[in-house]
Amino acid sequence: METTNFFDTWLNTQNKMINNWVNTTQKMQSAITGGQAMEKGSEIYNEWLKNQTDIVKEAGKVSEEAGEQTAPADFFSKWMNSQKEISMKWMNYNQDIMNNFMHAQGGESNKFGGNWMEAFNTWSKSFGSPFTKMMESMSGAGSKDAFGNILNSTNSYFKMYEVWMPVYKAMTEKGFDPSKMSEMFSAEKFKQVMDNTFQYMYPAPLKDAFENAGQWFESLNSYSKQLTGQYFNNFQNMPKSFPMMFGDNDAMMNAYSTMQGMYQRGVLPVFKFAAPGKESELAQLYIDTVDKYAIYATKLNELQYVMYVSGQKVMEEMITDAYADFSKGGEPVPYNEFFQKWVEKSEKSYVELFKTEEYSKLQGELIDLGIEVKAGFEKLMETMFSQYPVMLRSEADELNKTIYDLKKKVRALELQLNGSDTEEASEEKKAAKKSARSTK
Amino acid sequence: MKQENFLKEVSETGAKLMKGFDTLMEIGDVTVATTPKELVFQTEKVKLYKYVRETKATYTTPVLISYALVNRHDMLDLQPDRSFIKNLLDMGMEVYIIDWGYPTRADRYYTMDDYVNWFLNDMVDFVKKDFGSEKVNLMGICQGGTLSVIYSTLFPEKVKNLVTLVTPIDFSIEDGLLFKWSRHMNIDRLVDYYGAVPGEFLNNGFAMLKPMMKVNKYMSVLNTMQDKDKLENFMRMEKWINDSPDQAGECYRQFIKDLYQNNLLIKGELVIGKKKVDLKNLTMPLLNIYATEDHLVPPSSTIPLNDHVGSKDKELYKFSGGHIGVFVGGRSQKELAPAVGAWLKKRD
User: Fold this and answer.
1) What is the pLDDT of residues A318-332, one digit of tens each?
2) Minimal C-alpha gap between A428 and chain B (Å)
3) Do B117 and A424 touch (CB under 8 A)?
4) What ipTM was predicted for this assembly?
């Protein structure tokens, strides 16, 4: 197969597919704004599908004529299916929105916000998966990363809409009371916006690694499986069981200490039955690490809390400003503009927060605790693997230190040979003289 | 806001995403740092490159560039039409650049002493020998600038002119988040655990300096995703941002402890190897460039260098822009690079 021919065909096909999709989207937009989304939706989709099928058939034909050896038809067919999936979801999505909108217009205005929120909540569910599949065919890792980041930012954009819509609805109705604005938007939805926007701050991999390690350890030490599992589950369920603790870290810590103490009292007798040696050492290390992880999780909760509070303040300011404009007789700003303002205001607010001594201290503690957990986990791994014929990390470190020292020595000797008067060379010269004296 | 308008906004966003996907598929991977250069020297993982010149250099002293350890020097040559390096070459300079490499955990024991007295010193010696000059013009950027300042105080006889760009010197400032945050870091635990401090860890810290920038950036790029050229430029910057080498632990430990936490350089108490670093020993001509909007290294950290050095010929250059704009912005190419060239020519 001539690679150039294959990729030329592929690129050409891809361009046609995208143009087809963009044209269809434009038609859909016109249908929506013209209030004909429901009537014309199926027609537009069928037209898209026919065009898409023609494009794929054409691509297969061109490839065949070019005598390409691999199965391009299969390739294009798979490619088309991924496009088909996303386009179908896109059509359904638009129709859902329209449907909700029409219901709202039909006298059920009290459901207006809710319907819209549901519709927008489907965005990430509908598009995340097909786009992720399509990203697999991207050639450059950079392109994949960039598109993944863009997709993530659009998620923040849509999630933010879910927060904003009920406020907008309330604002356009009579009897809007800005002092009750915090009741208008969903804290849970807003938390999702925040989590999505700042996900790079939250070390999920650490949690995953730890949970995986927990499973691994549990399978190794069956006698403690039940107890550790129970303990871990209890801790994980705490936020659900005690929602009032959200934001109150002292209460969280007190509850945790009580639970931890109870667990220790319950488990310690079991350790006494275990044979002295690695198993009980491992179990103790595991408990210590779980303990550290719990403290870390609490501190992370504290940091997230101050972020949420700061974010909520910005949101309230946004609503106050938007209402001030609206009550002057204007219309609330377009959503894109609103989103942009939110980004700018949030930036200022977070930077102010980050400048405080309290935040710096909290962040420093969190990093420190996170590393303590990782170090505990590493110690656990080293203890576990100490009986196997593998080099442990600490042993590799020792070896690297020896290599480093030797390299420094060689360099100093080389410099000395070259007649260099550097500090290293003269140090080495002194050491050599001293050594010569002591051997006399 | 009418609901129909919002539907339009949403539809447009979807279409832009799809179109952007298409353009990204076409682009594939982007290349950076394309100005031709040759590897001329290497010690450990540290490499020295010499840029290829079509004609003989018109400056009698070669330029050696020392970039920061925390990011890659590719920033100076990100794209052909915005290349600080190409500008220097076009002005007639012989240009060498240090590539600090990608340290791993095996390199954890390299200290600041090694980076200054071993790697940097070897590079300077090689350039002198290769070009046939008694001294070099040292150009230090960001953290690489701090190392260059330290080097120039220890080896003033080897540096003809020193140019520092967005270089942190006074670490006691209150207006830089990195400076504040560093004071609350348990650096020993960090280095002891990681050995080589991950570039990703540092990158997350940089991202938090402008916490909403990621969202803003990626939503903004949606509007230019149909433009292949613009998207390629964006991708080059993305590639550079994500290319963050890990940091050799011991060097990082001293840099944070002695500088960020204890500000020893400006106090005259920093010890490298066994020698105290006295800024008064820095006596060669100095051009100190700072960026007014620099959020990584605020001007308040950079400017004080001129008050502490022994140089009589010293100049402050104010660049209106940010930390990155110094190298890739339009004005960087049109104004800053020629200004650096003229300053060096006068002292050549």
Assistant:
1) 888 887 877 777 666
2) 14
3) yes
4) 0.91
> How many angstroms separate the CA atoms of B74 and B239, rounded?
10
How far is A340 from B217, CA to CA, in rounded Å?
11
- For residue A377, how far is the Cα from the chain centroid? 23
Average pLDDT, chain B: 92
pLDDT at A409: 95
Residue listed under structure tokens 């949030």: A346
Give residues with Cβ within 8 angstroms of A322, minimum separation 6: A167, A171, A332, A333, A338
B303 vs chain A: nearest CA distance in angstroms? 21
- For residue A189, pLDDT over 70 is answered with no
CB distance B230 to B82 below 8 Å: no
B219/A154 Cα distance (integer angstroms): 7
Residue among B1, B7, B5, B8 at smallest CA distance from A330: B1
Beta-strand relationship, B275-276 and B271-272: antiparallel
**What is the tens place of the pLDDT at every residue in A156-179?**
777 777 777 777 777 776 666 766
* DSSP annotation string for A350-376: HHHHHHSHHHHHHHHHHHHHHHHHHHH
pLDDT of A37 reads 56
Contacts of A368 in chain B (CB under 8 A): 185-186, 189-190
Higher pLDDT, B15 or B270: B270
For A200, the token pair is 């790079």
**How far apart, in Å, are the Cα atoms of B197 and each of B102, B103, B177?**
11, 9, 19
- Which residues lie across from B318 on neighbouring strands? B290
Q: Is A364 on the interface with B (CB under 8 A)?
A: yes
Question: Phi, psi (5° rounding) for residue B276?
Answer: -80, 140
Contact map slice: B 161-190 vs A, CB within 8 A:
177, 180-181, 183-186, 189-190
Do the beta carbons of residue B301 and residue B171 sit within 8 Å? yes
CA A60 – CA A65 distance, rounded (Å): 9
Residue A344 CB coordination number (10 Å): 13
For residue B317, the 8-state DSSP code is E
Minimum-distance CB partner of A371 among B1, B21, B193: B193
Q: How far apart are CA B209 and CA B167, in angstroms?
A: 18
- pLDDT value of residue A71: 42
The two three-digit tokens of residue B272, written as one number: 């490298």
Contacts of B26 in chain A (CB under 8 A): 11
Contact B347, B285 (CB under 8 A): yes
